[in-house]
Design a protein that fits this description.
single chain, mainly alpha, 3-stranded parallel sheet, 5% strand, nuclease activity, HARBI1-like, hydrolase
Length: 308
């Protein structure tokens, strides 16, 4: 006579084996992506089942905490495991994902002449958009000064090729910023508004269109992983690892789940909403040669646009 299937197995089965909707809602990825992540952790990261927990259950516990910032007391009730077991396997999976950064990290490649994307084709050699976002963290009282933003929050700032940056950066080698004092926000170019009248306006329009992708990325990252939206009681070392792991998992999902239904829940985000919210980077000196190169790039692209 076969023994009764444990309740823990029933719960995991309902979570990851029946409907994508349940898996998406609880773990922020569909069943296929979840299976692929378990496979990578097991066969590339060396993760093994324990006497009582399978690899999928360990990963599900970990994702459940990241997705909704659930406390261990809640997760132990969901998975019918002890608080000690939840704590142990959360940290086990966290450290394994960090060790797999070479597998999960997607390194940028420069824009080529063959690029046809209307947002990026104007920026040959560009590696992407560079910006920062603040993640609230909890630190010991004596260390809060190191992490306090100009708005008084305790947070950390996540930061021949170059990146598109906002005016919080200096226009220096490797950092291509928009022209100051020239209309820039996407709302300034709504239907009915006169188009770019010179190379500076054209450059700022294309710069804003391309850089808007990073604002959406930050929005999606925080929407995906609830643990990034509020203070955490983990040590600052663990909190920093959690931020890195959420970014690595974002990379992973871009490959394994390109048609992510969760993106439909993300409201439209414009550069204008966040451009002036960040800290200014003061330790990068302006570069006249780089500024002249920006003028040359802007003029050539503007003339190319006008000729069509």
């Amino acid at each position: 006579m076969s023994s009764r299937i444990p309740d823990q197995i029933h719960y995991l089965h309902r979570l990851v084996s029946i409907f994508d909707e349940s898996c998406l809602r609880n773990l922020r990825m569909d069943r296929n992506a979840f299976g692929r992540l378990c496979y990578v952790l097991q066969y590339s990261g060396g993760m093994t089942p324990t006497k009582n927990l399978s690899v999928p259950e360990q990963v599900a516990i970990f994702l459940s905490i990241l997705s909704h910032h659930k406390k261990n007391n809640v997760v132990k009730h969901d998975f019918i495991r002890s608080k000690r077991t939840i704590h142990k396997h959360f940290h086990r999976v966290l450290n394994l994902v960090i060790k797999l950064y070479n597998v999960l990290l997607v390194r940028p490649t420069p824009i080529t002449d063959e690029c046809i994307d209307s947002r990026w084709k104007w920026f040959k050699g560009c590696l992407g958009a560079l910006d920062g976002t603040f993640i609230n963290v909890r630190v010991p009282e004596e260390e809060k000064g190191r992490y306090r933003t100009r708005k008084g929050h305790v947070a950390v700032n996540v930061l021949e090729n170059y990146y598109l940056c906002d005016n919080g950066y200096t226009n220096a080698e490797g950092f291509l910023t928009p022209y100051r004092g020239v209309r820039y926000h996407l709302r300034d170019w709504d239907t009915g508004v006169v188009g770019p009248q010179n190379h500076r306006e054209f450059f700022n329009l294309k710069h804003a269109s391309a850089r808007n992708i990073i604002e959406r990325t930050f929005g999606l990252l925080k929407m995906h992983w609830g643990i990034l939206r509020s203070h955490s009681f983990y040590s600052i070392k663990v909190q920093t690892r959690i931020i890195l792991v959420c970014c690595l998992l974002h990379n992973f999902l871009r490959q394994e789940m390109p048609d992510n239904p969760l993106e439909d829940e993300l409201p439209t985000i414009g550069v204008e909403e966040t451009e002036n919210n960040g800290e200014t980077v003061w330790n990068i000196e302006p570069n006249p040669t780089w500024t002249n190169w920006r003028d040359t790039l802007a003029t050539s692209r503007y003339n190319e646009w006008r000729s069509h």
